[in-house]
Specification:
By secondary structure, the protein is of the alpha/beta class. The chain has one domain: Rossmann fold (3-Layer(aba) Sandwich). Helix 4 links the parallel strand 4 and strand 5. Bound molecules: 2-hydroxyethylsulfonic acid. The site of 2-hydroxyethylsulfonic acid has 7 residues, from loops.
Length: 254
């Protein structure tokens, strides 16, 4: 059988990069998206050589609907039959209160985490429905389960990811397609550096005394959902470090 195709947004670092490595290791062909190509080119060279899979680089900003549509349109015929879409591109900027933060920064989060994810789903899923085969895996967050201090808008975007995942599952209930919402807790990636607007020390402090998850840990769970037998739909997975209990409560060793 032909190798399956996974399309990963935000694949140049963190959870997206972890997913690229995991799916390649399992023999899948990859379409990798991010805004900049340099890291994707490195990944492509490495994974093609290491696992003998094929990697197609598709750079665009998920916030730019026209760019995204043109990129998807440009996919060569043999890459169009996407089996799994991993809607991973997402970010958090700042830890401000809802009455104090920057509307411009919140727009970036809303446009990426909600509108970008929705646009990708809207563009990729019709082909899956036509082919009678496909799986959408959204990277949500523990932050979508309940708001926490300094997280208001980010938490709202991840609550939206939960609603969009549930809504899509409802809309696809009469099809063989599957929808999964993966909800990570603390994961140590560049994500946290962006949350603290580039302050590496603040980001390191966030994880001090706890062993956080890695992008590779999340990728294992994403792959678990993608490779489950066809009659099993992993609807949601909430996963966090052993010493984390909720979005706000974790035990940090001194
Ligand atoms: C981010 C996870 O625990 O920082 O999606 O809210 S957490």
């Amino acid at each position: 059988m032909e190798a399956k195709i996974v399309f990963i947004t935000g694949a140049s670092s963190g959870i997206g990069e972890g997913c690229a490595r995991k799916f390649a290791k399992e023999g899948w062909n990859l379409i990798l998206n991010a805004r900049t190509v340099s890291k994707l080119e490195e990944l492509k060279a490495e994974l093609e050589k290491m696992y003998g899979v094929r990697v197609y680089i598709l750079p665009f900003d998920v916030r730019d609907r026209k760019q995204a549509a043109a990129a998807l349109e440009s996919l060569p015929e043999e890459w169009k039959a996407i089996d799994v879409l991993v809607n991973n591109a997402g970010l958090v900027i700042g830890v401000d209160k809802e009455f104090e933060g920057s509307l411009d920064e919140w727009d970036i989060m809303i446009d990426t985490n909600i509108r970008g994810l929705l646009a990708m789903t809207r563009m990729v899923v019709p082909g899956m429905v036509e082919r009678g085969r496909g799986h959408v895996i959204n990277i949500g967050s523990i932050a979508g389960d309940a708001a926490y201090p300094g997280g208001s808008v980010y938490c709202a975007t991840k609550a939206a990811v939960k609603a969009l995942s549930d809504g899509l599952r409802i809309d696809l209930v009469d099809t063989p397609l599957r929808v999964t919402n993966i909800k990570p807790g603390m994961v140590e990636t560049n994500f946290t550096v962006v949350r603290y607007r580039g302050d590496k020390e603040a980001a390191d402090n966030f994880y001090k005394g706890i062993r956080p998850l890695t992008g590779d840990d999340i990728a294992e769970t994403v792959y678990f959902a993608a490779s489950a037998p066809e009659h099993i739909q992993i609807a949601e997975v909430l996963l966090m470090p052993t010493y984390q209990a909720t979005g706000t409560i974790s035990y940090k060793k001194k």
